[in-house]
Design goal:
Elements (H helix, E strand, L loop, with lengths): L4 E2 L16 E6 L5 E7 L2 H11 L6 E6 L6
Antiparallel strand pairs: 1-4, 2-3, 2-4
Length: about 70
């Protein structure tokens, strides 16, 4: 289970709130609809790129970081 992390515009996006490790992430709009699912080596950088290019589609994010033992 993962919980949604709200993307906060007053903090200029989620940069400091997300892990920089590898994993999967889902970007949801403010209505809770999935807008993008991605696989990344650096979740924080990938979500920041979404936030900069389409902030209107970034209401919250769910992440799952891969542990070394899972790879």
């Amino acid at each position: 289970d993962t919980e949604a992390l709200a993307v906060s515009p007053e903090n200029d996006g989620p940069a400091g709130e997300l892990p920089s490790g590898a994993g999967v992430y889902a970007v949801y709009d403010t209505n809770g609809d999935v807008q993008f699912i991605g696989l990344s080596r650096n979740i924080a950088a990938s979500v920041a790129a979404h936030w900069k290019s389409v902030p209107e589609l970034c209401g919250s994010v769910k992440v799952r970081v891969f542990l070394v033992s899972e790879l």
